[in-house]
């Protein structure tokens, strides 16, 4: 049963596998979701995904739902699944990777990245013979090579994640390199050029354009291996030095740090961080795009989407969580006008 009209900016209460069939094909820009862990938590009522008897059945059900997500996503769209692991008899079950391999076998999407969430406040475990699990993957899948990807938008909150934690450079910034240049085997002309470029790069660090830098000087530092013509090795051989510029957050890594969220009064036991959802939405959508979460829980995805002037569709099996998510949404401001999703 396929309908052509679905209200956007609404939450559907029901089983996502069934409800996804009512969404038109190629109509959603981003799916971002966190399905229940395998046999991990008792959500209100104990129904739904996660209560299967074995992992194969759990992965089979997840992949079935994933397949529907692929259908509803536009060719330029992406699908992000956050899947948690599970210990059974003291051994990790590699649940996220079983899921990712199951998806790969569909041959419908490309796995673009495994974004690792580093939990800054992981739950301490009693087992003294294991390290504390403190990471979880967010798998980013694309439906085609033409997927929307605004890499620059990812983790751009420099105040909090870069400059805020950075010490101001001291007066001795680069002092070591001036000494090394002076004592090096470079010719006078090479030394003059090296000092000139070093002055410029230090000025960039001081005015905040650059995060930091490294310098390699002929006869002093180990030479880089291989590389292309015009690369670092060539520069060292011709100029006698090379300067490696480091641009802080513009080095967009597949890692994101965040605390495990606990929102005061939230009735849901497994909320994922608004910050991570925000960074994913920023990178993978534009204003006015449609974001779908088939396991909406307490509504985090919809709340962030609304705040960021994106449209949302949520599906959640438990009416209590639907009601709670709706309440969160009424308290979330957005200046974007809602339209009908046809
Ligand atoms: C890990 S929680 C999602 C939490 C959410 N990300 C948040 O921040 O609140 C997974 C949710 O999926 C719901 N669920 C389980 N099986 C479902 C199904 N078949 N269809 C829709 N929702 C389901 C559970 O009730 C639970 O609220």
Summarize the structure in words:
With 342 residues, the chain is α/β, with parallel strands linked by helices. The chain folds into two domains: 10-155 and 252-330, Rossmann fold; 167-250, no CATH class. The chain is 31% helix and 20% strand. The strands form three sheets. An eight-stranded mixed beta sheet has the order 1-12-11-2-3-7-6-10, sandwiched between helices. A two-stranded antiparallel ribbon has the order 4-5. A two-stranded antiparallel ribbon has the order 8-9. Helix 2 (55-72) crosses helix 3 (95-106) and helix 5 (175-182) packs antiparallel against helix 6 (188-206). The chain is elongated and about 75 Å long. The relative contact order is 0.18. Residues 157-165 and 336-342 have low confidence and may be disordered. Bound molecules: S-adenosylmethionine. S-adenosylmethionine (SAM) binds at residues 15-17, 34-36, 43, 48-49, 268, 270-272, 295, 297-298, 300, 315-318, 321. S-adenosylmethionine binds next to helix 1 and strand 12.
């Amino acid at each position: 049963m396929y309908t052509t009209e679905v209200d956007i900016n609404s939450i559907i209460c029901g089983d996502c596998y069934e409800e996804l069939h009512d969404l038109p094909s190629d109509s959603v820009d981003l799916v971002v979701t966190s399905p229940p862990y395998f046999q991990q938590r008792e959500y209100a009522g104990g129904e739904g995904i996660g209560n299967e008897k074995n992992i194969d059945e759990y992965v089979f059900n997840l992949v079935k739902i994933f397949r529907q997500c692929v259908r509803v996503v536009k060719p330029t769209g992406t699908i992000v699944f956050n899947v948690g692991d599970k210990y059974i008899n003291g051994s990790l079950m590699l649940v996220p990777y079983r899921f990712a391999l199951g998806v790969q076998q569909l041959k419908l999407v490309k796995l673009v990245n495994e974004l690792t969430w580093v939990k800054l406040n992981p739950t301490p475990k009693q087992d003294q013979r294991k390290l504390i699990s403190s990471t979880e993957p967010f798998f980013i899948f694309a439906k085609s090579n033409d997927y929307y990807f605004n890499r620059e938008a990812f983790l751009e909150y420099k105040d909090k994640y870069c400059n805020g934690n950075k010490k101001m450079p001291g007066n001795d910034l680069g002092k070591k390199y001036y000494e090394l240049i002076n004592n090096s085997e470079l010719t006078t002309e090479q030394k003059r050029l090296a000092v000139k470029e070093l002055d410029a790069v230090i000025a960039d660090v001081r005015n905040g354009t650059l995060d930091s830098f490294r310098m390699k000087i002929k006869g002093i530092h180990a030479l880089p291996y291989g590389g292309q013509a015009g690369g670092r090795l060539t520069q060292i051989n011709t100029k006698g030095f090379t300067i490696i510029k480091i641009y802080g957050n513009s080095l967009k890594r597949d890692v994101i740090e965040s605390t495990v969220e606990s929102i005061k009064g939230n009735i849901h036991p497994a909320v994922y961080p608004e910050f991570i959802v925000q960074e994913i939405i920023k990178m993978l959508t534009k204003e006015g795009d449609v974001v779908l979460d088939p396991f909406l829980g307490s509504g985090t995805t919809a709340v962030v989407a609304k705040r960021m002037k994106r449209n949302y569709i949520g599906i959640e099996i438990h009416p209590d969580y639907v009601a709670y998510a709706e309440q969160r949404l009424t308290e979330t401001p957005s200046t974007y006008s809602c339209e009908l999703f046809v």
